[in-house]
Amino acid sequence: MTHAAQPDSSQRGKVLCVDDEPGILRALDWLLRRHFDVVTANSGEMAMDLIRDNDFDVIISDQRMPGMTGVELLKAARQLAPRAMRILLTGYSDLQAVLASVNEGEVFRFINKPWNVDELPVVVGQAVGLSRTAAPRVEDEQEDAAPQRLADPILLVDGDASVHQAFDDALEEVAVTVFHARTLAEALEVLDREQIGVLVSEVRVGGFDATRLIRMLKAKQPEIVSVILSGEHDAETITSLINQGQIYRYVPKPVRAGYMRLVVSSAQNKHRQMRDNPELAGRHEVEAVPAWQAEEMEQDLARGERRRAGAPEPASGVGLLQGIVTTFRRLLGR
Known about the structure:
Blueprint: E1 13-18, H1 22-32, E2 36-41, H2 44-53, E3 58-62, H3 70-80, E4 85-90, H4 95-103, E5 109-112, H5 119-131, E6 154-157, H6 161-170, E7 178-181, H7 184-193, E8 198-201, E9 204-205, E10 208-209, H8 211-220, E11 225-230, H9 235-245, E12 249-252, H10 257-276, H11 278-282, H12 291-309, H13 322-331
């Protein structure tokens, strides 16, 4: 996907770049100005003034700046300019920044420095296009928005029975239906059968990388809101889930009842907004997983189910568990 220069300035995206290093701002301006109208700010405070006075399509901010960090800026921008798509830059493997970028700033993309000069304009172009589809209301971006009940249930995917019990205890007084899956095969069956609104999942389930399912599902059903509940805190994994899975929250284990209730209520609200306004769901679309990755996951699921059932490895293909393979293909459009 490429973006040609647009002669009509009204069609060019308006992008705010924020960094305290002049050299970084010059590099961003040089890279992006061919395709977009670029405004720069050398501090979070200066950026806030510009956001109040301008209607930006995209806000790109560095994380580590004196005074206001990038996450703090983007969190404030959520309320001041909910239409603008948010991108966070960082030159460090900063786990706390990654966690905060998803839990507080709800960023569109998390990009490490040095950025890829071919990819960054494409990402910004995608963000510009999405910013002009539909915008969440300011009140919907408030953290303390009143919880809304909705019929679409929650699916919890985790191999640990104690996590399921803790989750049920945390939501005991919340009027919501919760389905439980202890394997990815069980999760696929529930997803195929029920209209799930919120997916809560561990990063690894039964020895398998569950993030692949989350990414595939988001590409097919962007209105599903994904929450990671995990004891594994790896910056690279979380960054991948932000950029390729558009996860809504990353919640550390052990489960804290009060916080879990707040996250679930917020996730329900987010799903309700996207379910009722499909254009909003488009703001959270991700690229389809390559066919070879889908095939690899399909084979892994089949092998895992055979091992769990104590069945021998078949001579060819995945015919022994055609049911789960069929479900996988139907759910993910394969």
